Amino acid sequence: MTPKEKAKELLIKFLYYVESFSFEQQNENAKQCALISVDEIINECGDRFLFSKCDYWQGVKNEIEKL
Question: In the chain, is it the N or the C terminus that has fewer CB atoms within a 10 Å radius of its CB?
Fold first, then answer.
């Protein structure tokens, strides 16, 4: 799965769990949740993942920010 595909998948997953009065705000809330999750994964990269995995998750973060 490409970083772009993973970014969209995470956003859609969180979209169902956040509520707001408008779709735009709901989408922004889901985006922030996805970014928090990916940041947690990136923070753990140093000890447990190969650098290629860190690069992958940094790519996912970049794609989420574009959404």
Answer: N
Residue position matching structure tokens 């996912």: 60
Give me the average pLDDT of each 10-residue run along the chain (67 residues): 96 92 93 97 74 86 96
Question: DSSP states of 1-67 as a string?
Answer: --HHHHHHHHHHHHHTT---SSHHHHHHHHHHHHHHHHHHHHHHHHHHS-HHHHHHHHHHHHHHHH-
Instruction: Name, in order, each residue with C-beta under 8 angstroms of 9's C-beta and a sequence gap of 6 or more.
Output: 1
Separation CA 4–CA 8 (nearest Å): 6
pTM: 0.86
Whole-angstrom CA distances from 30 to 9, 19, 50 are 11, 9, 28
